[in-house]
Design goal:
Layout: E1 7-9, H1 22-30, E2 35-42, E3 48-50, H2 71-74, H3 95-105, E4 108-113, H4 120-134, H5 136-141, E5 149-152, H6 155-164, E6 170-174, H7 181-188, E7 192-196, H8 202-210, E8 214-218, H9 223-231, E9 236-239
Helix pairs in contact: 4-6
Bound molecules: SN-glycerol-3-phosphate (G3P) and magnesium ion (MG).
Length: 250
């Protein structure tokens, strides 16, 4: 149900580096991580960029939005200063840069498709196609442990990803797990349910596992909580505290 790593660095390197940057990936590697979650959104010209917020103002200074800015301009923006002066000019990465880094360092990827409003299907299809093209060898190899996992809160984005590259595994992201979630997960051909650890209960975890899905949680920063949800049958989780919860955490 979950051939993937159990402990995954959230948004690159969690809180040890600016989120969704190559510096974050480096921090993850420095802490022994070989598994990462990050967010991908399309630029104005339809290129996948690694960034969380649709609007500027938090990790990218100023006004404007990802969906209204070309990729080359996003890549020239400073996504590091907000976190610390030593990260000044850390760029907004292209998704393909993250792929290259992860392949070179043998890092497993959970790619969260994070569409700007109105771009759900376009983003899902784009991410799936680029991922499939870059992982053709792994997909042909037939070992699911080596496949990147696509996830999204957007049903439409995941449906488009399914149609564009059905061979890539998909995780359906839900803040709270609603009663009808398994109907939608089945329509999406999802292999896993990804959910907010805050709202998970032992009964819900048992229900998801009994239905045959992998169960992944975000975002666990307290080791005691991590141990608790793992005891409920949760298969894995992502963490911001890569310094407190290491890749071999049990
Ligand atoms: O993919 C899990 C988690 O990253 C979802 O929330 O807002 O951190 O992207 P967010
Ligand atoms: Mg995310």
């Amino acid at each position: 149900m979950w051939p993937y790593p159990k402990i995954v660095a959230h948004r690159g390197g969690g809180t040890l580096a600016p989120e969704n940057t190559v510096a974050g990936l480096r921090a993850g590697v420095a802490y022994g991580f070989r598994a990462v979650e990050f967010d991908v959104m399309l630029s104005r010209d339809g290129i996948g960029m690694v960034v969380h917020d649709p609007a500027f103002g938090r990790t990218i200074a100023g006004q404007g939005s990802v969906a209204h800015t070309d990729a080359v301009d996003l890549a020239a923006m400073d996504a590091g200063s907000w976190f610390g002066a030593e990260f000044r000019d850390e760029p907004v990465p292209f998704f393909t840069q993250f792929i290259d880094y992860c392949k070179a360092q043998r890092i497993w990827m959970n790619v969260e498709i994070k569409p700007a409003d109105g771009f759900e299907a376009e983003t899902g299809a784009w991410v799936a196609k680029i991922t499939r093209d870059n992982y053709a060898g792994e997909l042909a190899g037939g070992d699911p442990a080596g496949y990147p996992l696509l996830s999204s809160f957007s049903f439409d984005a995941l449906a488009a990803a399914r149609d564009a590259a059905p061979e890539l595994p998909r995780g359906y992201l839900l803040d709270k797990i609603p009663a009808e979630c398994q109907v939608q997960a089945k329509q999406l051909g999802a292999v896993a349910i990804h959910t907010n650890q805050k709202h998970l209960t032992p009964a819900l975890a048992a229900q998801i596992k009994a239905a045959g899905y992998g169960l992944f949680c975000y975002t666990v920063n307290d080791p005691a909580r991590g141990r608790e949800i793992l005891s409920w049958g949760v298969d894995g989780f992502c963490t911001d505290r890569i310094d407190l919860i290491g890749p071999a955490f049990t």
